Amino acid sequence: MRGGIWKNLLVLFFVLLPVWAAFSLLKQQAKGLRFDIVSYSDLPGWSSARVYEAAPALLKSCEKILSFADNKRLPGAGIGGSARDWKPACEALGAAQTAEALEGAIQENFLPLKVSIGGKSVGQFTGYYETLLHGSRTRDARYKIPLYLRPNDLVMVNLGAFRRDLAGRRIAGRVQNGQLTPYADRKAIDGGALSGRGLELLYVDSAVDAFFLHIQGSGRVRMPDGSLVRIGYAAQNGHPYLAIGRPLVREGAIARGDVSMQSIRAWLAENPDRVDDILHQNASYIFFRELTGGDGPIGSANVSLTAGHSLAVDRRYLPMHAPIWLASSHPDPASASAQPIEFTRLMVAQDTGGAINGEIRGDVFWGFGPEAEEIAGRMANKGRYWLLLPKALAYKAAQKQSEQASAH
C-alpha cells in the first residue's frame, strides 16, 4: 500500500514538473522588461495618423546619427545598437520627399516593439514646456533671483562609460582631496554657496518661476527692453529630484488627485512664508546656458526639441534618437474639468529628466506659450508606447530575449 502511494506521488511529481517549470518561466519573464515585435496594424491609430508631422523631429535625430562614427553606440540603453545600424534607415527617411514616402520609409526600415514590464504595458506620461520668465542681466530690487551658469568645478560622470551595466546612469559632484564628493544642494546654493564666483547668467523676479524653470529645463526670459533671451539646460548638481507635490500631499495642503503645476503655484502664492521650505525639499538644482539659433530648446540628445513630437524618456531603458509610437491622453487646455483628449502620434526620444524614471514613463514636450503651459502643467496621464528600431536591431532584440527565455 505504502509503495503504491509513493509510486503515485512520483508519477504526479513528473507530471507536474513541466507545469511548474513553465509557471516559473512565465513568472521570470513577467518580472523583466520586454520588447516584443508586433506589426504596424497593432499600433492604435497608425492607419489614420499624420506620421509626416513628426518629420522635423525624425530628421534632426537622423542628422545627428549620420554625423556619428559607424561604431559609436547610440546614447542610452544598449538595445539602440550603433550608428551603423541606423544609417541606412536614416538615409531612407532623408530621401523621402512626400508624406506617403516618409510613412513607407518608416515601415520599410523599422519594426515596432511593444514595451512591457512585469506583463504590464501601461505607464505614466507627463508634459513639459518652454516657460516664460521676466529678468535682467543686472541685479536690482526687482530682479534678484540668479540663474547660474555651470560651475567649472562641477564634474558630471557618465557611469556607462565605465561599466556597460550602468548605461544611462550618471552622477555629479566635485573633486576634493582626490575624491568625488556631493555638490552643494538647492538650499545651500540659494543660501549663497555660489555667490561671488561670477556665475550669474541672468536675474529673474520670482523664486517660484525660477524653480519651475529648473523643472522644465528651458525657457525664455523677457528683458526690460522687451527682448527675449532663450536659455537651456547646461548641467545638474547631482542630487536626486523630488517632486514638491509629494510633501504638500503628505501634509494635507493639496489632495493627491489635485496635484498639478497650477495647484502648486496657487498654494505657494497663498503661503509665501513656506516657499523656501517647500522648494528646498527638492535638492536637485539646474544650471543654464544662453541659447542662440535653432528652433527650440536643446534636449539631452543634443538636438533641438520639436513641440508635440519630442519625448523625454529614461535612458536606462530606451535609446536616445529612437522613434516611439505613443498612445496616451492629455488635459483639455480649454477646460480643467473636461475629459482628457486622447491622442496617438509618432514621437522621438530626444530628452531626459530628473523626474523621468521607469521603463514605461515619458514626458511630452509641448512647446512654448499659454496652451503648452496649460497642457504640460496638468498632464499626468496613463499611456503605452512602442519602440521603433531598425529591422536588424529589432530581430536581434527578439532573438536575445528568446535566448534568455530558453536559458531559464
User: What is the general shape?
Assistant: globular
Task: State Rg.
Answer: 24 Å
How does the major sheet shape up? 6 strands, mixed, barrel
Oligomer: single chain
**Structural class, please?**
alpha+beta
Proportion of strand residues: 25-35%
Helix content: 25-40%
Order of helices and strands: HEHHHEEEEEEHEHEEHHHEEEEEHEH
Low-confidence regions: 6-30
What is the averaged pLDDT score? 90
Mind explaining what this structure looks like?
Helices cover 31% and strands 27% of the residues. It has 11 helices and 16 strands.
Summarize the structure.
This protein has 408 residues and is α+β, with helices and mostly antiparallel strands. The chain has helices at 2-31, 55-66, 83-95, 99-109, 186-190, 207-216, 245-250, 261-270, 275-279, 370-378, 391-407; strands spanning 33-37, 110-117, 123-136, 145-148, 155-158, 170-176, 179-181, 200-204, 218-222, 228-236, 286-291, 310-312, 323-330, 341-351, 361-368, 380-390.
